[in-house]
Every structure is written in C-alpha cells, then in structure tokens.
Amino acid sequence: MGIQTEELAPGINKVILDGSLDIAGAAAIDLRMNVIGGASKGLLVDLQKVTFIGSMGLRALVAPARAILGRKGKMVIFGPNELVEQVLKTSGIDTMIPVYHDYDAALAALQ
Amino acid sequence: MTANDMDVAQDQIGYLGQLVLGSRLSDMERLPVWVESLAATHGIAENVKFAINLCLEEVVSNVIRHGYRGKAEQLVTVQCTSPRAGYLVFTVDDDAAPFNPLAGTALPTIGEQDEGQIGGQGIRLLRGFAATLEYEARPAGNRLHIGFLNPARA
Predict the structure, then answer these.
(1) Residue B29: which H helix or E strand, with range?
(2) φ and ψ at A43, to 5 degrees?
C-alpha cells in the first residue's frame, strides 16, 4: 500500500493512496492518516489508484475525517473506481466525506 | 488457457477449492491470493472477485478477532463450490462460540454514527455485496454460506 502526501496550501493537504486498502493496507497507512488528519484543516484523499477497500480501509478514512470535521475542517475523496465507490456508498461514508470525480470541484470543496 | 478452456472452467459445477487459515490476522494475506487463483481458473468476473474479497475479508477477520479472540492455533476453513452454473458459494467454517452474524440489526451507516463509534459496517457490506447469505450452527462452531452470482461472459 503506497501513501504520498503533498501540501497544497497551509493546512490543506493531499494524500494519494495506491494499492489495496485491505486489512494489511489499512494497517500500513493508519498511523500516517491519523497524523495527517490531526494536522489538516482541509484534506483531499486521492483514491484513483486504490483497487480495493474493506471495512478496515474505511476506518482508516473515517478516523482522520472525524478529527478534521471536529475542528470544522473539510475532507473530500477524489476519484474512486466504481467498486470502491460502491463500498463507500454502502457504508454511508460518502455522507460524511463527499466523493468527487472532478479534481477542481474536489479542491474547491475544501475552500 | 484458451477461450474454450475458460468457458469449460467457468461452467464447472461442484467443489472448486478450499483454503485453511490459521487464527492470526496475518494469515489473511493468503485469502486474496487464493481468490485470484480461483478467479483465473474459473473465469470469475472482476466485480464478483471484488465482492468475494470484501465479504471474505469481513467474515474471516471477524472470526479471528471476535470469535477466536486472539486464541492461537485455531482454524478457519473457506470452501468454494458452484452448485450451478453462474453461482458460487463460499462456505466459512470456524470452531468459535456460536454466533450468527446475520441475526443482529445493522448499525447506523458511518455517516450516522456518533463520535467515537467507528465500524459495525460488516453486515451492511455483506448484505450489499453478497447475493445470498445463510448461517448454520454447527455442533462445535459456525458455518456461513456466502453466495455470489457470476454471470457467464458474453
């Protein structure tokens, strides 16, 4: 599971995840996602290269989202494939973390 | 494998394979490898493979974490059968205390949950991605049948 971070603006960060967000993948990014969540007021999570997500993968997204939303910040998900998006919608996570397929719209949502 | 071989494999009825896992979460790394091998041999569609991986990860991890509660040297057996063309059933057997995961009501979606409450999405995901679910209590354990439709390729 790969994870890359980029600061887009002060307090606004982007995370690019790459691989399978199964139990092992979620464990590999969990700590880093929590640290990023704790340091961001806006966070864009790019899931374009994520091939799979299970319930532990959902946890890895929800924990930082709760931290950011708790500070009145915003977190968005960008570019999940159709099957990953189906998991996000089935779990209801998309009501907490909006999902975008347009990058500019995702960025604008963080403002 | 030729296209004809794939057709034959996809229509194979009966027992397709079995995987026996230990009771450590790290043993679960073998699950997607096994599913991938079944998918290649029996022409399982990409979206069906995704659903199988999702449901098996959920069920087996629950058995290991909650059923066996860290007890070492326990086993989880996953068997794949095809009772009829285009239909796959994965049967998960464990020796844990009786627990019917289908009996409970689904928790609120993640978006509806209170602060501090994360998770409990397993049954919601199972119902959303499996075609059929059936629980069976065994004399010393549990058996869960998880069915998936795998329509023939055009």
Answers:
(1) none
(2) -140, 125
Q: Pick B109's closest partner by Cβ from A23, A55, A91.
A: A91
Residue holding tokens 């086993």?
Answer: B75
Task: Round to whole Å and give the CA distance between B39 and A7.
Answer: 40
Report the number of distinct structural domains present in chain A: 1
ipTM confidence score: 0.92
CATH superfamily ID and name for B3-149? Histidine kinase-like ATPase, C-terminal domain (3.30.565.10)
Which residue of A1, A20, A21, A23 to mutate against B (max B Cβ within 10 Å)? A23
pTM of the model: 0.90
The predicted structure's pLDDT at residue B6: 44
Task: Pick A93's closest partner by Cβ from B28, B61, B110.
Answer: B110
Enumerate residues 6+ apart whose C-beta is below 8 A from B36.
Answer: B49
Residues of chain A with pLDDT under 70: none
Sign of CA dihedral B52, B53, B55, B60: positive
Q: Which of B146, B133, B58 is nearest to B103 (CA)?
A: B133
CA-based nearest distance A27→chain B, Å? 11
Q: Which CATH number covers residue A18?
A: 3.30.750.24
